[in-house]
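Do me a favour: review this protein, sequence plus structure tokens, and tell me how the chain folds. Record follows.
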Amino acid sequence: MSKPIHTNTQATTLFDKIWQQHIVESIPEGPDVLYIDRQLIHEVTSPQAFEALRGRGIPVFRPQQVTATPDHNTPTLNQHLPIREEASRKAVETLRQNCKANGITLFDLNTPYNGIVHVVGPELGLTQPGMTIVCGDSHTATHGAFGCIAFGIGTSEVEMALATQCLLQSKPKQMRITVKGKLQAGVSAKDVILYLIAQLTVSGGTGYFIEYAGEAIRNMSMEERMTVCNMSIEMGARGGLIAPDQTTFDYVVGKKYAPRGDELNQRLKYWKTLYTDNDASFDQEYVFDAQKIKPFVTYGTNPGMGMGIDEVILETANAKSLEYMNFRAGEKLIGKQVNYVFIGSCTNGRIEDFRAAASIIKGRTKADNVFAYLVPGSKTVEQQAREEGLVQIFEEAGFTFRQPGCSACLAMNEDKVPAGEYCASTSNRNFEGRQGVGARTLLVSPLTAAAIAITGKVTDPRQFL
């Protein structure tokens, strides 16, 4: 780690460039009025906002810049049937009514583009470099992988953005995290972000927007970059972003809602200006060596309580968390029985995540003690997994490949982990009760989750490579 860097320079950061271009008005001694390019909504945090607008007689200002999809409450089996859970059924139906009444594009259940909001946006080209993007969901930071200022907002801000296409925002401090060098075999983007959170703690990014840089980040695919930015919020940060490059442009071009023709050429010219100037300063900088990162696993009840999978739990680990997890300081997790596995979520529910899992699962059979949720992040991912033969690999190994949704990430639908059970999860949070009352979550990468599913116990995925 290095010390804070403060220099006098006219050079600007990527964040500065985007922020400055979106200021509608700066309030003296106060926040900025920030223009929002794209608002994403789902069924959990939008109903109250629409109700408030109706009560005040205010229409949605620019419905063409709002996109909706149900994801949190949706079942992941039998989506063609009515939703059985009353609260979930009502939430999804309310979203439908609000979108219809306000002319908002909705990617509904049983339509080709339904899925988790932070998976659907990028894969359809709704997410583009240089944008400001908001959603009533903390993991909106995912979109920062494209060189966007993307962040989660509360319900009152959802209402404000719907009514004005703007938000009042105080500019956060800025941090840069550089991961130099190349990653070891078997180490994924999920391991990188879990490692960074463990190093800086869950409050290490509080008050900051983080830019990720360095060779290890540059070598990542867009889906890997999304995984890193997705969990910026777990470090306490307002969001995270990565400067767009050719990898970004190649991913965006050709997507359903991506610009084409002359518009694309103009956008590309702009996108190529989105980088941090060489002499730009940050409020805080950290540098890490990629070679020191191993496959990671959490042992506690926040994402910062993690370690290399072959290491031992710290003696200084929080006693209350260890009691909840039924672990002891000084012990290894390797070999611990795990009966539940979840591969999915807005962190790791993309096609590359299922390809990684299939690389270990192929030709093997899941452990008899394991119950697994394999849940794609979208209908597009689901279809691609079938076309590539991944679903066949999973089914031959004894798994059920489900339909899209947030699923066991936060257990707002029927996909819950029973009390006292351990779940190796590719999601983003391991809070007490996150995956079900009394459930115990081990956050891992798709490779590690697949290895655990095959062996039925905590396993270093490198032994399968």
The chain has a mean pLDDT of 96. Residues 357 and 450 are 5 Å apart (CA to CA). The longest strand covers residues 173-180. The two ends are 31 Å apart (CA to CA).
